[in-house]
Design a protein that fits this description.
Elements: E1 9-15, H1 22-35, E2 39-44, H2 59-69, E3 75-78, H3 89-99, E4 104-110, H4 123-129, E5 132-135, H5 143-146, H6 148-152, E6 174-177, H7 186-194
Parallel strand pairs: 1-2, 1-4, 2-3, 4-5, 5-6
Helix pairs in contact: 3-4
Length: 195
């Protein structure tokens, strides 16, 4: 895991990043700026239990692509999840919390993941481990209104104007952040490369 100091505000942005692209970078930059973070950990995961692993390029390749894309020194590209032996976000976040009890974390996710968030293993536990910032993505703006997560935790949603204090909130707490959106997607990039 990247080095942190007591009291820091850290964003956790995980995914398979297959491949990473400027849309991911935009989400990371928006999170850094709007949430007032000291760092953002770009967590390249070994695999996604909800997606096929057969077509997933090696972790080392995806890690190198992410490192080549990132320019901001506050963004720390890491693959520490590989050593945990679990592909599940809930387990990763529990580990991070145990190892860094004096650090303030926020889970960062694109709005496109909000629709299926309730299918993630122990999704309610994820929402009660760290505050969550959902960053707008094309075609997903309205998903925060209708998703099971948004309905379940509707009373703990804070206004995006207060996003800079989200990391100070006791979970469950979440916000939806509107802003510039990139139409890039890893799926579309893979399909274009194959076609």
């Amino acid at each position: 895991m990247p080095h942190v100091e007591r009291g820091m505000a850290i964003g956790l942005f995980g995914g398979s990043f297959n491949p990473p692209h400027d849309g991911h970078l935009l989400v990371a930059e928006i999170a850094l700026r709007r949430l007032g973070l000291d760092q953002l950990w770009w967590i390249v995961t070994p695999g996604n239990p909800l997606k096929s692993r057969s077509a997933l390029p090696p972790l080392s390749h995806r890690l190198k692509l992410c490192e080549a894309l990132v320019r901001d020194p506050r963004i720390k590209v890491t693959a520490f999840e590989q050593t945990l032996g679990t592909p599940y976000t809930a387990e990763t976040l529990s580990f991070v919390k145990r190892r860094n009890p004096q650090v303030n974390f926020v889970w960062i996710m694109g709005a496109d993941n909000l629709k299926s968030f309730h299918r993630w293993q122990h999704w309610r536990r994820i929402a009660t481990t760290f505050p969550i910032a959902v960053i707008d993505r094309p075609g997903a703006t309205l998903s925060y209104l209708s998703s099971k997560m948004a309905r379940t935790f509707s009373r703990t949603r804070i206004d995006e104007d207060d996003a800079a204090v989200l990391w100070k909130k006791e979970p469950p707490a979440w916000t939806f952040i509107h802003g510039p959106r990139s139409s890039l997607s890893s799926t579309a990039l893979r399909e274009a490369a194959e076609g």
